[in-house]
Specification:
single chain, 317 residues, alpha/beta, Rossmann fold, 11 helices, binds thiamine diphosphate, binds iron/sulfur cluster, binds magnesium ion
């Protein structure tokens, strides 16, 4: 294998701008420790479910020995979307509802990165609902984790697309009347190729789902129930055995490649089943576009990008 290009900063730091520095290969490099991954102190309310998702994300990076320059953490706006601030890696705290659009650009232009996008239920399914459908149908390679607390937390308790009927909030003082969406069914119908549900109260399961999603070659979506203790306390007690609820797994004999079976399974009433509902191979937009680019490039006679651009400009003159 050829040795990796040495970034300018490394040369500058070592003071050996003209020397060849033997950098360790990826396999030789040590994995990151939690201390190296964690940035800043999370500003969530004590007891917020989002802490658990963050802790498991650190664990995932540590366990899978990912390096800073290979992880990208993108989010929209909301309490949950503060995520990238707390991760010592590249990423962006982007515009409300537009995390997937930004993350798609990153994924398509840098297929070597693991792109993780985090959203809240409002960010993902309300203002960002359109992007959710289209990113799923395009099968852009990334992992999308929605921390669903069934309320707008950051803006202090408005009804979200997953709030149940009757939920009293600042926007529905007499109780919500609109039928909530079913994120799992919506993801399957839109064309997501990996669809799973987990909860912040079951760390082992959450990590297991994150790993499976990360290993999937395509758009992997996880609905992670994550309690807002401030504005919707107890929302997920019925899925937590420690609070008298039941944590029901997707049956072992469920065929995850059967789209209709997955859709029917997702029909269970709240909180429903936990695990992988749907997982099927389909070419990613990344792979399809890479092929178009390679085909086009093979016909350009070895011209460089800037020369191709120049030719296009010249044609416009
Ligand atoms: C364009 C735009 N509209 C509205 C807002 C106000 N706003 C910020 S976060 C948010 C909803 C957050 O809810 P959710 O995505 O569920 O995240 P949570 O805070 O519950 O984690 C809203 C409406 C905004 N920042 N930008
Ligand atoms: S308001 Fe709710 S979602 Fe936001 S940090 Fe507090 S507990 Fe978490
Ligand atoms: Mg929310």
């Amino acid at each position: 294998m050829s040795s990796p290009a040495i970034p300018f900063e490394v040369l500058a730091r070592t003071g050996k701008a003209n020397a060849t520095v033997a950098l360790p290969t990826d396999a030789e490099r040590k994995g990151l420790t939690k201390k190296e991954i964690a940035a800043d102190h999370p500003t969530w309310c004590p007891g917020c479910g989002d802490f658990s998702v963050l802790a498991l994300y650190y664990k995932l990076i540590e366990k899978r020995k990912m390096h800073h320059e290979k992880v990208t953490t993108v989010a929209g706006i909301g309490c949950s979307s503060r995520f990238p601030y707390f991760v010592q890696a590249h990423g962006a705290h982007f515009i409300h509802g537009r995390a997937l659009a930004f993350a798609s650009g990153v994924s398509l232009s840098r297929p070597d990165l693991h792109v993780f996008t985090f959203s809240g239920d409002g960010d993902a399914f309300s203002i960002g609902g359109n992007h959710f459908n289209h990113t799923a149908r395009k099968n852009v390679k990334m992992t999308f984790i929605v921390m669903d607390n069934m309320v707008y937390g950051l803006t202090k308790k408005q009804t979200s697309p997953t709030s149940p009927i009757g939920f009293k909030s600042k926007t529905d003082t007499w109780g919500a009347v609109d039928r909530p969406i079913n994120p799992i069914k919506q993801a399957i119908a839109a064309g997501a190729t990996f669809v799973a549900r987990t909860t912040h109260t079951n760390p082992n399961h959450l990590l297991q789902m994150m790993e499976a999603a990360m290993d999937h070659d395509g758009f992997s979506f996880i609905q992670c129930l994550s309690e807002c203790v401030e504005f919707y306390a107890g929302a997920f007690d019925n899925s937590n055995p420690r609070k008298g609820g039941a944590f029901d797994l997707v049956p072992a004999d469920h065929d995850v490649t059967d789209e209709y079976a997955a859709y029917r399974l997702a029909d269970n009433i709240h909180p429903g089943k936990f695990g992988i509902f749907y997982k099927a191979p389909r070419p990613t937009k990344n792979a399809l576009e890479a092929k178009i680019n390679a085909d086009a490039r093979s016909k350009t006679g070895g011209l460089k990008d800037w020369q191709l651009l120049q030719k296009s400009f010249d044609r416009l003159k």
